[in-house]
Each structure stands twice: as C-alpha cells, then as structure tokens.
Amino acid sequence: MTASLAALSARDLAAGLRSRRFSAREVLADHLARIDQLNPTVNAIVSLDVEGAQAAAADADRRCAAGEPLGPLHGLPVAYKDTHATAGLRTTYGSPLHAATVPDRNDEIVDRIERAGAIRVGKTNVPEFAAGSHTFNSVFGTTRNPWDTNRSAGGSSGGAAAALAARMLPIADGTDMGGSLRNPASFCNVVGLRPTPGRVPEPGTALGFSPLGVGGPMARSVDDLALLLSVVAGPHPDDPLSLSDDPGVLATVTPAELRGVRVAWAPTLGGRVPVERQVLDVLDPAVALFSDLGAEVDHACPDLDGADDAFRTMRAAQFDLLWSDLLAAHPEAFKDDLAWNIRQGQGLSGRDVSRAWAEISRLHRVMNAFFDTFDVLLAPVSQLAPFDADVLWPDHIDGTPLHTYLDWMASCYLISATGVPALSIPAGFTPGGLPVGLQIVTRARSEARLLAVAKAFEEATGYGQRSPGS
C-alpha cells in the first residue's frame, strides 16, 4: 500500500486527527484494508468488529468537528488482547471453553484506552489462557510472524506484536508474566514493556497481591509506547499494588545522555540460561554501542539464584488456583503443557509457596542493591531467534536440551521474579533477517529512566524503523 496512514506512528496519527488533516474514518479504513490484506496469513487479529469500529470512527469525527474535548488516543484503532474482557465483544482467552463468552463489562485497561479515545476493531490472538510464549490455540489457530510467516510471533501477546509489525495497528495492549510482552516484541521487531507491578493497575483480579502478572503497552517506537503507558498507568483503589505516581510524566520521553551511565551486560544471566550464538552475535555489537555512546559497560549480573524455582512455584500455584477445577471438569479442553503446569501447582505445599514468596522478596532487595552499583542491566530478551511456528516449543538451544515449554523463556521470567521493569527494544537482525530484541532493565518504579535509555539506543540504531518487506 502506498502513502498508507497505517504506516504512520501513533503520535503522528494522533496529531493529524486533532488537526483534522485526516479523519478517524480514513485512518480506520486504511488499517482495515491492511487487516484485510495481511491478517488471513498472519492471523493476529481475531473477533473483528468492523461495523462497531466504523460507527465509533464516525462518532470520533463528529466530536472532533464539534470541538469537543479529545483524548490522547483519539481516533486510533486498537485491538485488545483476547484475555482482556471487552463488553459486548467475545473474549475467548484462547480456550474452547470460552469460545462463545461475551463479557458485559470491560477490564480496567480497556476502559482507560477507550476513555482516551481509541477505537476498538477487535481482539489480538493469544495462546490458551495466555500460557506460553508461542501464540496458538484451538479456537483461532496459530499467529505467524510477519517477518517470516513460517516462524512464531512469540507470545502470549503474540497477536498484538504481529499486528503492530504488520502495520495493522499503531498501538497494542498486552500482559506479561514470564515474558509475554517482551518476547513477542523481540520476535516481531517492536517495543514491549513489562512495567513495575502496580504501574498499570489490574483491579478485580483474583491475585491482586501477586507481582508476577502485569499489564502493559506495546508499540513500534519508544515514543508511542510511552503515549500508551501514560494512558493505562495510574492509581486505582481496588488494586493493592497500584502506584500513585502521576502517569502524565511518562507521556514524553527525552533520550538519556548515556555518557557515564553504568551498564551491566549479562549475556547469559550469569551462566543461568543458554542463548543461541546467532542471537549473541546480534546483541554483542548492540551492547558495544552503549560504550561508543560513552556508557561504562561491564560484564555483571545480579544474584538470580533461586529466581527460577520461585517463578515456577508461584506460576504453578496461581495456575492451580485459577484452573484446577476447570481442568478436572474438562480435561480434554486443555493443551498438555498447560495441564502439566496446573498439576505442578496441585503438588505444592504451603511451605513451597511461602518459600517462593520469601525468595521473591529477597530478589527485590538484591536488585535494589545491584542498581546502587549499576544504572542499567542489559540481557537477551529471547534465548533464540523466532522458531518454526508449527512446533509446540523449541526442544534445544544450540545443542542444549530443553525439557519443558518454559525453559526457553528463562531470560525473561528470571527478571519477572525480581519485580523490576524491563523493556524489549529492536536490536538488529540475524543473517536470515529475523528480528532480535535487547532487554533493558532498571530499578523498580523507574520507567521514566528506562524509557529514556531505550530511546537513546533507538535513535542511535534505527532498527525499529524497519518493517517486514521493506
């Protein structure tokens, strides 16, 4: 498509809509044409609601013409992750048990995005119950990577990442427990942020005090990601971890001055994870760029001993609470890996869970101490490049065998267990043209600093400006 509005950034679209250089109906039409062209192959957007979106776009144009107040996301098309409840539009969780579920209310993150003026076009595909970092399910099938449709788009926010990369959406929401925002961002050459727990409130969840699962933004640039973050962040009285900071300060990002910044580079997280050589061959020069820009780079890693067991224990315990009864009633409706993970939780003792909570508390203190010495931690997002979309999960990394569907996600989930924010930024491409992301990690509640460092890297490289087929 030539001169497509769908190729513009979210900020440029928002500015053009406000100035009436183009209309919300025109923006929607361009994105719907892109969806019609590419989604049959990529399978990123599900439960498409064309009529509802067209009516909302017409109303957005009416409000703009009438001079009514406009939100920061006015007129921007969005499709919500299919684990976020959307009033009047089915939310399947990627499970056949919910294939016909139509909620009567929105989740809070959906309400915030819609109050900011975005236009709902549908949902983005997920793995079953968002479990796993490869997006496939028995309801809608497999989401494929726009860079190579034989490859995985990652997950669990894989539909969101693929839709962004293919220019079907300008912004997208997601969630992240073990890497579900960061991993697909890395696979699809977009930006994904796992915020500090509580930065993006999730009121009403059964596990409000757990720091593992968080909601967050995804976009094609740091600026667009910050725009969406400023909308979805902010306090909520019904989220016990909710942060009271003003989210408005996150909306505008100035690139950090990297001279003198203390950077730790942990290519294998202290020998704890295997990483493909082709991934490290991309990331090594990306890290060297920090030195070129004046940062002080050292090989160092925080003490993450215990993080693996703590994460796996808490994840399994939560899965047991959420889905054990459903698994008992409908064992045939669960994929084998998810059923295994739920049963892992069934075998835990109270002491096992308490020990995991204690370890997560220790890791929080470890990271605080680590960031007294370093300003930034760099690590791989994904331990391997996008893999064959038709396999369930990779069973080895450069000769190292993997035994469960979780093993290849450790470079993300070890960081999840520490409670700090982490971002995936496009960092280059393998010789075969597959995207690789760099994970940037900072102290808890320091998203503004994290975004500033990421933007400095983004401006110095320009990798995120590349699109599939360009």
UniProtKB/TrEMBL annotation:
Gene3D superfamilies linked: Amidase signature (AS) domain
Listed Pfam families: Amidase (PF01425)
GO molecular function, one term: catalytic activity
Domain Amidase stretches: 26-451
Signal peptide region: none
InterPro entries: Amidase (IPR000120), Amidase_CS (IPR020556), Amidase_dom (IPR023631), AS_sf (IPR036928)
Name of protein: Amidase
Source organism per UniProt: Nakamurella flava
